[in-house]
Amino acid sequence: MIYKVSYVVMGGKHPGAIKSQSEKPQPGDQVRLGKKSFTVVEVKEILPPREDFAFLHVTLQEN
User: Fold this and answer.
1) How is the chain split among helix, strand and coil, in percent rounded to 5?
2) Cα separation of 38 and 2, whole Å?
3) What value does the mean pLDDT of the chain take?
4) Nearest to residue 43, comparing CAs of 7, 2, 1?
5) Virtual CA dihedral for 47, 29, 14, 59, nearest 10 degrees?
6) Coil, strand, or helix at residue 23?
7) pLDDT, tens digit, 9 for 90 and up, residues 21-36
8) Does the CA dihedral 13-17-22-26 come out positive or negative?
């Protein structure tokens, strides 16, 4: 499965990112965007999975 992930950072101090990845993010995971590290707070499906793709919205909190 390929996950298309929209990362949004709480507080708006970082622009976030859109990434394709092979593992589904989980709350508590650590994510690196550029030089900064973030913690996954929430994971939501944007659309139901299709074939080998899933579309996710992930909320991050800066560490």
Assistant:
1) 0, 65, 35
2) 21
3) 96
4) 7
5) 40
6) coil
7) 999 999 999 999 999 9
8) positive
